[in-house]
């Protein structure tokens, strides 16, 4: 076969992708998280408790923080230390936590919260193109906004928490960023377990219990995994830790789409595709996300780097199709086995048979059949193309064959009569082992039969190979195209049929 320049370029690109994979996956093995916030993040060292949870779960994790007491995101935007940490790059997640009241101020958050969140998000994306900005949805003050209450106004915890949720979700939705719903986990804990104290006496900062609940919420948000049963429990009792783990896991994992959490939250490429076909020609629809480069292997030694290729196969058969999708962060591979036909009509069913006393060999003569279903009339069935069957009781049997393909199905029933004189108790069958399957280049048959003949036919019953063998044998099949074939072994004891898949 002549190799074209295009084929060489495909091979060179594929080789380059393989060389890059170790580097790509080395950077993806450790999850790197940077927390940016104030004392709501720093008190009880939330980043450290989250890291301890992750380590106890066997995760590879690296955590840093930039916390300033009382700071707003505007303060962090103007803080050299915070910006330098963002610019270190290679963060999978940069967590932004605003001052406790600003997200609940429905008018003021438009110019005191959102502009600085967007500016920080822009910097994060420049220096961390494979990472994601994540928002820390904080919890309301214990009894409502302290500023409102101290000035004689009216507010409640429930009202303030709802406003905080709306404030964080509005900016997160606009930036397509995930949210860690810590405040909503606090809310659920207060509903279910009002005796668990989550607040310090200032009614603003969390107790160690509140911080542990926040850590569990971040664990489930970042790893999309339940924290229930993790061995790290901080200063909690086992029973309290289990309660907090359960609340956090349920709040996050039951509503991931609500919090903008998905398996592709970080900017890694994911490979996916579907296809439509018209006889031998297949149109591939690339459904990958976050990918910049594509490499297709159509399963017949042909390749493409086009995003949505159209490929024509030379013959019908089963093909193992592979799509590698990649970007500067990673590479992801998707495999699918597809069945290609060179006809578009329903099957036409028919069969014949030969007998040796009570042993019957059924011979398929259907057209355009892909799948076979035999019912021998005595309770036994088979999905082989040309099965053999031994009847043990004299009777009249209705043998039914049903054949199908993607265009429809057809069936036929024939009667056979087993006479008493044809019944015997000899149920011994010769041992025949065929390997491997799928086949590659060589068909191996291992048996103790002295003399037998083998035939290989296409699924359309075209004879491709005929040979006489003795005991174990090896047959070169490297010249046969990939696809499904029928192997028939003729012995003195009967005819044995096997379906073969060639995938060189």
Output the CATH class name of the largest domain.
Alpha Beta
The percent range for strand residues is 25-35%
Q: What is the total tally of β strands?
A: 26
Q: Gap between N and C termini, in Å?
A: 15 Å
CATH architectural name of the largest domain = 3-Layer(aba) Sandwich
Mean pLDDT level: 88
Strands in their spatial order, largest beta sheet = 2-1-3-4-5
CATH topology of the largest domain: Rossmann fold
CATH homology superfamily name of the largest domain: SGNH hydrolase
| Uncertain runs | 1-28, 422-427
Helix-strand category: alpha+beta
In DSSP terms (H or I, runs of 4 or more residues), the helix count works out at: 12
Summarize this structure briefly.
The protein has 4 domains: 33-253, SGNH hydrolase (Rossmann fold), CATH 3.40.50; 273-340, Sandwich (Immunoglobulin-like), CATH 2.60.40; 344-427, Immunoglobulins (Immunoglobulin-like), CATH 2.60.40.10; 430-504, Immunoglobulin-like.
Structural description of this entry:
With 504 residues, the protein is α+β, with helices and mostly antiparallel strands. Helices cover 27% and strands 32% of the residues. It folds into four domains: 33-253, Rossmann fold (3-Layer(aba) Sandwich), CATH 3.40.50.1110; 273-340, Immunoglobulins (Immunoglobulin-like, Sandwich); 344-427, Immunoglobulins (Immunoglobulin-like); 430-504, Immunoglobulin-like (Sandwich), CATH 2.60.40. The strands form seven sheets. The protein has a five-stranded parallel beta sheet, with helices on both faces. The protein starts with a helix and ends with a strand. Mean pLDDT is 88; it is low at 1-28 and 422-427.
